[in-house]
Amino acid sequence: MTMGFASVRKGLLTVEQFAEVVGLKPATIRQKIWRRQVEYVRIGRAIRFKPETADKLIEQGTIPAREAR
Known about the structure:
This protein has one domain: Arc Repressor Mutant, subunit A (Orthogonal Bundle). Helix content is 45%, strand content 9%. The protein is built from 4 helices and 2 strands. A two-stranded antiparallel sheet has the order 1-2. The longest helix is centred in the last third of the chain and has 10 residues.
């Protein structure tokens, strides 16, 4: 099930939706949750993500290019 990023930006994302947005497998996201490497929202037993958390995760993993010599 492919979703456009704009269509899921309105509310909280499930683990599967979040994984699709950031381009990782849901198992990898669950591992990051367990290790507390990613911010999440807990509603009862459900785990959800704010859309801006995907932007933060991508920004944290971004490595800048080297300057030309």
